[in-house]
Each structure stands twice: as structure tokens, then as C-alpha cells.
Fold this protein.
Amino acid sequence: MRLLERDHPLAVVRDRAAGAAEGGGRLVLLAGEAGIGKTVLLRALADELPREQVLWGMCDALSTPRPLGPLRDVAHGLGPAVSGLLTDGAPPHEVFAAVLEALRARPRTLVIEDMHWADEATADLVRYLGRRISALPVLLVLSYRDGLAADHPLVPVIGDLVSLPDARRVQLAPLSRAAVAQLCDGSGLDAAEVHRRTAGNPFFVSQIVAQPESRLPASVREAVLARAAVLDPDRRRWLELISCTPEPVGAALLAALGVPPATVDALVGTGLVDRHGDGLAFRHEIARSAVLDAAPGPATERHVTMIAALEATGGDASVLAHHAAAAGDVPRVLRHARAAAADAARSGAHRQAVELYRLALAATGHDGADGTGPGTGNGAGRGLGHEAGHETGHEAVDTGPATRAELLEALGTELYLTDRLAEAIDVLTRAVALRRELGDAIAVGTGHRIISDYAWYHGDGATAAEHDRAAREILAAADAPREWGFALANHAYLAAHRGDGSGAARAGEDAQRIAGELQDPALHGTAAIGLSIVRLLAGDVTARTDLLDASVTGVTRKLDELATAPVSNLAHLDVEQGRFTEADAVLAEALALSERLDVQICTMWQRGVRARLRLLQGRWAEAEEDARAVLDRGEMPLGRLWPRLVLGVLAARRSAPPENPDLDIGWRIATGLDAPAVLAAAVAALAEQAWLLRRPDPRLDGPVVARLLTTEFSGRRQTLGPLRRWAARLAAADLPPLPPLPDDVEDRPDEGDRPYERALALWDTGAPADLLTALPVLDELGAAAVAARFRARLRALGVVGIPRGPAPATRANPAGLTARQLDVLGLLAEGLSNADIAARLVISPRTADHHVSAVLAKLGVRSRGEAAAAAHRMGVRA
């Protein structure tokens, strides 16, 4: 088929390829509907480049995609290091680093097709490469279908990539009537009618033009089936057979299936399949789906045939699991889904691992979602359950409680890693019940300890403590010193955050003694976290070194959570104890480490802590950007704690709204944890809001605050110190005071590099000169509501000539944006892509690109996320 009306997009991609070859990498996001010609355009580009320069990977339309499937397609071209790491199941950060090193060697064009089917690990890989593309001699081209649902996993990936300075989005449009007329020329077809039927979709047009003697089909499906109808029955069956697998069929698989060479030629002759390397692939998923849906007879027979051939040729476990589920083959579903899930987990494709473990659980008669028994239907995930040892087909399959418990435990881990903590806790609770039935006390105790850990991340301190107690009661009586040591280390951590210094110290020291006896550095480093928190709360700053050493142990031993958790806690304590310089340094290294290891829970927490730090430093725009980035990233309550409190405090200081949902949510999360340091910060935020609104807050007079102020805990004097100032401010404003603070709590003001706190200290003096001195600081910060209080107090004191604050227009539009640019900024704040902005404003995509670039430049920001933060700060809405 001729390439019509693609000169401009091809020229754009060609230009980006030339730039990449000169050493400055480029990224192209090629978007369009199914059949619009994305593959045709990319093949035209590939034909212009040296064959060895092009690497071509494809995402598969499997129910659960192959982890890093596109990378596996091109690994042979990246050298033995990448292939070896993939074969060995190396962790993602090692694989990604090897890919990066391989791509540095010489100019390449790396095409990844159909990103809308990408697995999670592939999405992470393109993010990783996209952020580093400028340093590579590589053109990275990602094709995908546009019009994705807002909750599609690819949407945030595209949002991240499109904002990169070396990225360019290319949108393919349907063919015009004139182009369709050119394609129909000489066929005798009515070009206008063909255009009307196809809406200018090139693939549909190509199917119609290829058979002009047939009646004009009503759909692309009819057009595809008309082309398949030219095959004799035997060859048609081969076409139907290969249509049941979404990925290309290589030569080895064709041979194992017994497809004759003459049949291969005949299939290519239909125009529905192309030669792909040494095998075959359908030209388009539309064609494959049409053939598959129309194939007569039971589909299970085709899948059974495909399974046998795939097993004979060493097929990918996730592909085998797909066919086994479709064939209803319980033993193979269990075997291949488990293997594929483990592979996906090692590759970082944790969402895919969840689905595969659930598929395996369905084979045992339990779906891993709600605790129900076997399904009643047929197909993947339904009707596959059998009792333990039941014979089905070729082999016996064990679906008893031990197998189910093992699968539930693995599923729980993957749910945790995909930020579905409530589900993870539910799944692990059912695993514990099964282990209890089996009489496996050690596994029961370990399960309670893990649930305790997850409950803490979920913001549920009471549940965390309950499972912590259960774990210690069971494991104390078991002959399992290592598991007992980790239970003690978990207790030390929770006790330290509760302020139980003596309890944390005893448990942590016992855990480290066991670690010494077992010569177990991982246990020693884990126990060091709780011990170090206790020491830091007591003022022993040398404990920082122990946390840093524990992190090094985690990195050295490739224990990702041990690598990241110590520095996560250290950053938090450095911020809360006023070590801002140290906190900045720790956070920079910790975030780089967590991003590299893809430990999302720690990344969320660390960036939330950085938002808190930036708030205290008076860098409010950065604080807001960090906070919003965390809220966009995940749902873990503990990770959302600081972002919610930061945004709530900023809203109060800027405009003192009567309703403050961010602060309300932050308060709920803080009260769910039994952590005095966190709760004290939330109480201070409520007190500040009450002071600004001049309105009592009943939460400040409730049992939570009373308990905080009357209970002894480690670090109490420093933790509660700031509340003494707020108690005085509330009393001075004739508002209900806080409950009495302990006598030993002393507020020792040390505003240091905290400009907002310095301004409030000037309020406390009440001197007109001090109030006037504070005004420029508050105006510069954007604390309009607080500045208004200062000005009202100055007027009440009889001061004249009070400086006015920034004009409303200046505050709302400090960058001098045009009306159209304000519209664009409002839509950016909603998270819309450039294409969506173009559609909403009824402008061309290119014009939208220009507007977005101009907005970023005027605001002086580097990304769409920063622009969105600026929009929220300016009060700009769509």
C-alpha cells in the first residue's frame, strides 16, 4: 500500500532520527487509532536506515503481557550482557543499566510498537530511557493507540514522556477523500463511498482495495474475512490456528506446528500476514482478531495444539499460561502461570504478576480476590478449580491448602508492590488462615509480621500493633531464630515510632544479638532502623551513621527495602529535628536510590518528606509540586500523609478556605498512626488553621490531642515544643486553648532558615515595627491570608501607611500569560495531554504544542507537573 499524506510525520521522524545519529537522543511518541498506519510509517523509516541500526520490539495483546516483551525481542541486538541478565532474571535496575550501556555504543533506532499493551516493566523501561535519551545516540519511537481511557496504565507514562525536552508527539490523521481516491484509482470503486465507510482508515481502505470485485464491506471485519476466504480449507485452518496467539510466530514454532512452506507463502499472499524475521505475524491486530473471532469449532483445540508446539520450542511462560487458560488445562495453568508470575515479579512487572498469580489461584478454585471458591464458567480464571491431586488431562495437580497459601503469599507481596495495601492485607490474612490449618506455626508468625508491616504503611497503627503482638507470641515459642529476630526488629521499629524508647531498644538489641549469632547482616541492618530512631529521638546524632550503614548493607546485598527504608527514616528525622542541610543531602541520594530500585513506597514517602522540608524552608512552590506529584503517583496512606498536610497548610496560609479537605485527610491519616511526632505536626496544622479562621476546631479539644499531650514518649520535649507557641496564639485570639502541655515541654525557637516561622515570631512580639518587618516576607511567600491578619492587626494598632500587598491580578497571573495561555494552563492543571488540550480548545495539535511551550517558558518551569503546581498556586482553573 502506498504511503499517502504521511510526508510531514515521516519527515518529523526522519529528522529526529538524524539528530539522534549525531549524538543527541530523541524520543517520538507516535499516536493514532487502530489501522491508521503507524507500523507502515515506521517500516518506511526503517527501510531508509541500515538494517543493523534498527531494533524493533513489540508489545503483545496477551491477557497478561510478557514482562519486558519488547526488550526480549531486541536483546540479541544489544549484546550478551542484556541477554544474559534477562535469562538470569536479574532485577530491573540491573537490566535497565545494561540496556543503557548497550545503547551508548553506536547510533540506533529503537522502535517499541503498541505501547497500549505494554507490561509494567516495559513502561518503566521507556520512562528510564526517556529521562536519559539526550545522552544517547538513539531515536526511541513508541507507537500507541490514542483515545485511551483516563485510568489506562499508559496515560501517566505518556504524560511523563511528552513533557521531556527531547520528546515529540506525532499524531497520525485519517486519510482525506483525495488520498482514498488515489488508492481506489483504477479499481472501479466509488472513492467517496469507500471514504465514508472507512472514515479514511488506511488499513480498512487497503482491505477493500485489495478485493474490488467483492461487494463493498460494511466493516473492516468483513473485509478481512473476505480476504481469508480465498484460502482453501486446510490453509484457512492454519491461518485460524496462528490467529490464536497474539505474538509473531517464529520459524521454530511454525515447524513445530507442522505448517508447510507452501502454506506460509499462501498465507502471506492473502495480505493479512507478513513475514516477520524468519516467521510470520499478522499485519494488524484488527486482522488477527477478525480471523480468530470467526474461526469455527471449539477454540480449545487450537490452544491445545499451540501449547504442545510452544512447550516443544521453549515458549515464554506467560504465553503458555495464556493458552493454557484458554484451553482450560488446569495443570498447565498452574505451572506456567506461577512461572510467568515469578518472572514478571523479577522483571518489575508487578501488575502483570498480580494477574498471573490470580490466574494460578483460579486453577486451585480460588480467585485470590474475595476468598470465594471455584467459578462456574469456562475460560481463563473460571471453572479451573479441582481438589488436590485431581487428574486432569496429562498430570496430577496439587491445588491443596499449601499450594494456595504459597500463591496467596506471593500475590500479597505483588499487591503490596503495586500499592494495593488493603487487598494485600486481606490476601495475606487468608494465607495465614491456611497456614494455621496446616499447623505451620513459623509461617503463621511470619505472616502476622508481614501484615503488621503492611498495615503500618496503610496508616493503620492499631492493626499493625495487633499483628506485631501475634507474630511475637507465636515466633517466641518456635524454633526459628531468624524469623524471631525479624519479628523483634519489626517490633523495635513500631515501638520507636510510638515513642516507646525502652521497648524499642530491648527488641532491637535482642534482634541484633540474634543477627550476630546467625551472622546475618540483613537482620542486623533491619534491627538498626528501630534502634537508630530511638537514639536520634534521644538526641544521639551519631545514630545517623548506623542508618546510612544499614542502607549500604541493603544495596550491597540487593535487598531493595533495606536499601531504602533506613534513609527514608533518616530523612524524616533530619527534617523534623531541624537538620535541613543534612536532610537535603540524604533526600537527594535516597530519591535517586529509590527511583533506581523502583521501590515506589519509599519514593512516595521520601518525596512527601521533601515537600515537608520545602514548606519549612519557605520554598512553597517546590513543596506544592512535590506534594502533588506524590498524590498523582500512588494511594499508600503513609506516603500521602505529608503531601496532604503540606497542601492543607498551604491552602490555609494562602486563602484560609472555610473547608480544607487536604488538611482533613492528612489529619485522618495522622490519627490512624500511633506516632506522636506525626500527630504533633498535624495538631500544629489544625491549630494554625483555627487561628487563621478565628474559628474553634473541636478536634483540638478531643481525646486524640489530650492523649498526645498527657502521654510520656521518647523525644516528647522536642516534639511538643512547637505546640506551646500555638497554644499561646489560640489563647491570645480568645479561642479555646489546647489542653495543658506538660511542664517539661519547652519551646526553644530556632527559626534558622524558616522564613515563615520567623515572620510568625514577629507576630508574637506584637510590636508594630516587627509586624511591618514581617509583611514583605509573607507577601513574597504568597501567604495572603496570614498577611491579611498582620495588616488587620496593624490597622487595629492605629498604624497608617501600611504597605499594600500584591494586586489580585498580579497574584493571579504573575507571569503575564495571555488569555489563551491561561486557558491552556488550566487544562494542564487538569492533566490533559496536548492532543486533549487541542480538542478541548478546538485548535490544531501543533498550535497546542506551541501554547504549552510558551506557558512553560513564561512560568520558568521545566515540566508539566511544575506548570500544574503553578496553576494551583495561582488559582487558575480550566
